[in-house]
Amino acid sequence: MELSNGFYSVHEFRLEAKWLIDPKHLFVGPKIGEGAHAKVYEGKYKNQNVAIKIIHKGETPEEIAKKEAQFAREVEMLSRVQHKNLAKFIGACKEPAMVIVTELLLGGTLRKYLVSLRPRCLDTRVAVGFALDIAQAMECLHSHGIIHRDLKPENLILTADQKTVKLVDFGLAREESLTEMMTAETGTYRWMAPELYSTVTLRHGEKKHYNHKVDAYSFAIVLWELLHNRLPFEGMSNLQAAYAAAFKNVRPSAENLPEDLALIITSCWKEDPNARPNFTQIVQMLQSSLSTHSPPEAITTPSHMFISKNAVFSPDSPGTSSLMAVHDDTGETPKALIENKSRGFLFCFNLCC
């Protein structure tokens, strides 16, 4: 249930039994990623290799309430939306910490993969294939009335064979309502749609009307990046890029791109959200584009491919409940893990985002 302040009440939130994680069977390994709101660890749940997202609790009562609301909303969305290009949801628990468990994807973030290839670019057909994966995931979310609001390469993870991209992190996702005023506390500025900014919405707590077309804009920036393998708005800070896009209608150059792909990109980042295509249309355009490009030549995988060796966890490995008691939330590996490294079943696989 959503309250008047825009948050879900964690006390009224109920998780179906099939999605409830038993922390006694959850074993937390090395940290593989970290964001503003959570840390992600590799681990195991009932002998299944998983990714474990532990949400920061917050310090003040207001922060705690906000984090609990975001957790409740994210879990509710994950539990009802499944797609081959969305990270598979396995379950969650609220105690001893707010934890979300999903499938473990071993190909690394799209950001890391692109950086590893520079100065080379992806083959056009590979880039379009990745874009199609992303667009299909977004089409699924939008069909359920969910706006992601944080579409960027850091939230896109490759499978172990690095041939498929899956969307992760619903931390900023919101359900779309025609009458709802949504906050401007959204994703990274460089990928954000211009309608998310103004002199008032950049002030904390102010609100602004927008809809699912914000994701189409972000998708255009991601597709541009896939094709060029360069950071969009090069030479600008995130805020400078946001200002240029919002107030000067500046966009990265769409020159020297195949005509069909340039059309997709420029239509998706139009200033008027209503003029942007929806993701069903974007999927159709990408499928048409894919049929016109030749199959890619064999791509040599970078030598530092992100591979986990997934050690066998000892039966007496500490569960989440014991780890939470010693986790100091400083970003360091939990003490219990450090103490157990000598036993050989927990170690870091250099997958940090």
From TrEMBL:
Chain residues that bind Mg(2+): 155, 169
Annotated coiled-coil segments of the chain: none
Chain ranges of the Protein kinase domain: 26-307
Binding site for ATP: 53
GO biological process: signal transduction
Catalytic site: 150
SUPFAM superfamilies in UniProt: Protein kinase-like (PK-like)
Family, as annotated: Belongs to the protein kinase superfamily.
Protein name: Protein kinase domain-containing protein
Species annotation: Aquilegia coerulea (Rocky mountain columbine)
